[in-house]
Amino acid sequence: MEFPAELVRGEIVKCYKNLILDVQIGDEVVPVFCPELDARQKIYVPGAEVWLLPTGNPRRRLKYETQMINRDGSLIMINPTYAEVLLEEAFSAGLLTDFSAYNRLRRVDESDDVSYAQLEFSNEREEKCYVYAVSIYNKQGACVVFPSFINFFEMEMFSEFAKLREMGHETRVVLIVPREDCADIKFVWNIAPMAAAKIFDEAKNGLKFCGYACTISDKSIKITRKMKILY
């Protein structure tokens, strides 16, 4: 996936708690939007190089959105809104090996009786797999780890996916790793034990997890390979 416009390089000056960074662009310091992340305090640090996308909207107070950050020489894509596009492109390229049983992919829309899945994989036998995709960032050692938390949306997703499995459908959570400095994905209990217990129970009841790594540049990002999940 190529970025919709040329990115602007900057450097973080100050981090706030309300999704805003002060960034030095040339001789000017400007406020920019930054997404909430599961590893915010480790990633958004003063002095870090960031890559910004101009919003192109003169009415917006914040003229830039943070897309990527350079941490220790490795790019991290911090805009999580591209998950569906990344999976669609990877599926077309034959890179989603966990979905080899399916030959069709579409986005779930408002006409579907499904609220928390983003994508539906299917085949000519009418077999279906519903997918919730999420980007994960929190790094421990050489691995990117999960879970860091579970929000209300994800709790509702677990409930809905359990009903979909009762109807005979497959359900998966796809973990997208938009950073290039992690060898594997690791399930851990030490960050959010209650979240880990919930995920453990859902996995025992049939919810499947898989993960994919990305290659990132200042021009584009794409899924390139499957990642092993360590338990």
From TrEMBL:
<dbReference type="Pfam" id="PF03749">
    <property type="entry name" value="SfsA"/>
</dbReference>
<dbReference type="InterPro" id="IPR040452">
    <property type="entry name" value="SfsA_C"/>
</dbReference>
<protein>
    <submittedName>
        <fullName>DNA/RNA nuclease SfsA</fullName>
    </submittedName>
</protein>
<feature type="domain" description="Sugar fermentation stimulation protein C-terminal">
    <location>
        <begin position="83"/>
        <end position="219"/>
    </location>
</feature>
<dbReference type="InterPro" id="IPR005224">
    <property type="entry name" value="SfsA"/>
</dbReference>
<dbReference type="GO" id="GO:0003677">
    <property type="term" value="F:DNA binding"/>
</dbReference>
